[in-house]
């Protein structure tokens, strides 16, 4: 969970702040002359909570964590560590894959909630 959650936090914070700022800026530009600017906040928060926060957080995690896990497991395969686990009668999928799947499933909603609130803060700054 440390690798998937805590070490992904700086990237999630950066993406969240810029997502919120750009969303608010774009909404204010589009609403100009059509709707009062008091609608920018509710529209931006709805867009962030429903669409942008979860999608961009998942995209960031898929890229960062997916590459990390693939490199780690690939290195283990090349150095024959996975074969050694099979020799010891340990199921590599249960021993190597399941903890990563559980960690990703646990940390994804937490990081999405965190990214949503950081994006709202970024929208507030604009």
Describe the structure.
This protein is mainly alpha-helical and 126 residues long. It has one domain. The chain is built from 4 helices and no strands. Helix 1 (9-31) runs antiparallel to helix 2 (40-78). It is rod-shaped. The model has no long low-confidence stretch (mean pLDDT 93).
End-to-end distance: 33 Å
In percent terms, what proportion of residues is strand? under 5%
Question: What is the count of distinct domains?
Answer: 1
Uncertain segments are none
The radius of gyration over CA amounts to 20 Å
The run of helices and strands is: HHHH
How confident is the prediction overall: mean pLDDT? 93
Helical proportion, percent range: over 70%
Supply the helix-strand structural class: mainly alpha
Morphology:
rod-shaped
Count all strands and give the number. 0
Please report the number of helical segments.
4
Largest sheet: none
Question: What is the gist of this entry?
Answer:
This protein is an all-alpha fold. The chain has helices spanning about 10-30, 40-80, 80-85, 90-125. α1 (about 10-30) packs antiparallel against α2 and α1 crosses α4 (about 90-125).
List keywords for this structure.
126 residues, mainly alpha, 0% strand, rod-shaped
Ordered list of secondary-structure elements with their pairings:
Elements: H1 9-31, H2 40-78, H3 81-87, H4 92-125
Helix pairs in contact: 1-2, 1-4, 2-4
């Amino acid at each position: 969970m440390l690798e998937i959650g805590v070490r992904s936090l700086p990237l999630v914070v950066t993406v969240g702040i810029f997502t919120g700022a750009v969303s608010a800026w774009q909404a204010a530009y589009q609403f100009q002359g059509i709707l009062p600017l008091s609608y920018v906040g509710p529209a931006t928060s709805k867009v962030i909570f429903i669409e942008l926060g979860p999608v961009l957080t998942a995209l960031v995690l898929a890229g960062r964590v997916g590459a990390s896990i693939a490199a780690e497991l690939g290195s283990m395969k090349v150095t024959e560590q996975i074969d050694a686990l099979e020799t010891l009668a340990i199921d590599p999928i249960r021993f190597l894959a399941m903890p990563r799947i559980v960690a990703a499933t646990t940390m994804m909603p937490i990081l999405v909630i965190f990214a949503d609130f950081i994006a709202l803060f970024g929208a507030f700054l604009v």
